Amino acid sequence: QVQLVESGGGLVQPGGSLRLSCAASGFAFSSYAMNWYRQAPGKERELVAGIFSVGGSTTYRDSVKGRFTISRDNAKNTVYLQMNGLKPEDTAVYYCNAVRYSYNYWGQGTQVTVSS
Description:
Radius of gyration: 13 Å
Number of strands: 11
Strand content: over 45%
Largest sheet: 7 strands, mixed
Mean pLDDT: 97
Order of helices and strands: EEEEEEEEEEE
Helix content: under 10%
Structural class: mainly beta
């Protein structure tokens, strides 16, 4: 049974930080590229950050560059998203995604709310 379980979301003030975690099981984690997506109310789901399975290369959407950092620990089958300098426009449900060729797995999402 493939599982991706996100955690670490919550309510934070503007300028604050959160660290999201995604625990994976049921598949060859180290062979998959991992991504974080987010979806705000009334908006389409958008890619936030990604990290490749080999080499550890990363990619970020422009609006989060310099603020967010994606990382992975293959020994723990876990991918992280460190979010600093959070802004109200970062408010969304954040989803963990695993991809390898035609295989695509998704977590249930974790809510991040940035508000004063």
